[in-house]
Design brief:
alpha/beta, 3-stranded mixed sheet, 6 strands, elongated
């Protein structure tokens, strides 16, 4: 009746943007929860829109036009490696961090998922650990 539970792919707050990009691409996912090692808790989502928003802010059209394809790829990778996930998590402001406890009524989860821009809803256990992520799809 229920789909098999999959491993949650996450990124660390201190990871580079390039690391987050590779995690999303390699795992064929559009978003990942961000883990703060210092507080031992999840604090945000980072998604493809955050990456795109970051790249648009970093590069001018002229910068990208004046280089070859190979130079452009290397330049983008270098710039993505210079910034951390913490700097871009929810940069697009399209994926707020809103949580629900695992013992909350289903109506609470439905209400939170119905809020503007909420596409994913992390479910935390009593200790604050991430159990799963509910999505619109």
């Amino acid at each position: 009746l229920f789909p098999e539970r999959k491993q949650i792919i996450d990124v660390k707050k201190s990871d580079t943007v390039l690391t987050a990009y590779k995690a999303l691409i390699e795992n064929k996912i559009s978003s990942a929860p961000v883990f703060n090692v210092k507080t031992q808790s999840y604090v945000a989502f980072v998604d493809v829109l955050d990456l795109v928003t970051h790249l648009i802010a970093l590069f001018t059209h002229a910068e990208l036009e004046r280089s070859s394809d190979t130079e452009r790829v290397l330049y983008v990778e270098h710039r993505m490696d210079a910034h951390s996930v913490d700097e871009i998590a929810d940069l697009s402001q399209r994926n707020p961090w809103s949580v629900v406890q695992d013992n909350a009524p289903l109506a609470i989860a439905v209400e939170k998922l119905s809020a503007p821009h909420v596409h994913r809803l992390p479910v935390l256990d009593a200790t604050g650990q991430l159990e799963t992520v509910l999505t619109e799809s």
